[in-house]
Hints:
Blueprint: E1 2-10, H1 27-39, E2 46-47, E3 56-66, H2 73-83, E4 88-96, E5 108-116, E6 128-129, H3 136-143, E7 148-151, E8 166-177, E9 180-187, H4 194-206, H5 214-221, E10 236-242
Parallel strand pairs: 3-10, 5-6
Antiparallel strand pairs: 1-3, 1-4, 2-3, 5-9, 5-10, 7-8, 8-9
Helix pairs in contact: 1-2, 3-4
Amino acid sequence: MSRFFIRLAYDGSGYHGWQVQQNAHTVQAEIEDKLSTLLGSTTQLVGCGRTDTGVHAREFFAHFDVERMPFSEKELSRKLNSFLPGDIAIERIFQVDDEMHARFSAVSRTYKYFIARKKLPFFRHYSYFLNVELDVESMQQAAGLLPGLKDFTSFSKLHTQTATNLCTVTEARWEQMGDELVFTISADRFLRNMVRAVVGTLLEIGRSKMNPEDITYIIEAKDRSRAGYSVPAHGLFLEKVVYPLAF
């Protein structure tokens, strides 16, 4: 049995997230179906994480195991791309050591959230249009309080089955890029809905509904009701996934 990694990207607009679900169209199910056809046997993928409905990925990794690979990695990548719809792109397929795991071997993940500061018709599926005054300096100050090992229960979807809500955030910042305000956050792991809840809370601070230092009290409370709203999924992108070995 040999293990292969797939590096891919996808537009999540038409999918109920990455992970296979009953009676739902997902990215994982779409790729598994085409990959199984090409390899001639049922092939299951393990993703580097799970993205929610409507969330996009500029970089995503998954792995699969196969008894015998009938194609070269380059040929399989080409064939799989020709079978898949235009909103999923296979960028590379490559063999890895058997102990490499798409999810558990990843050491860091980076997300970006895009907020349109003016109406952008061609970006409407990829950024959150928010035409209100924002105190970006206060948002930046609050974001600076996020890094470190902390319990992010207050920013997690309720009733998840995670063993721990501890995450180590290594970067959290805002930057203006043209007509968009972009939030970047990196961590060793993320909880379900965490990034969208963090962004929503920072926007509440930007609208002067909270103070920057409130972010610390919200984290310490470990109570989802203390944090702000969850921003829409379509502005969120999984941007980068880092492994101990450079791919």
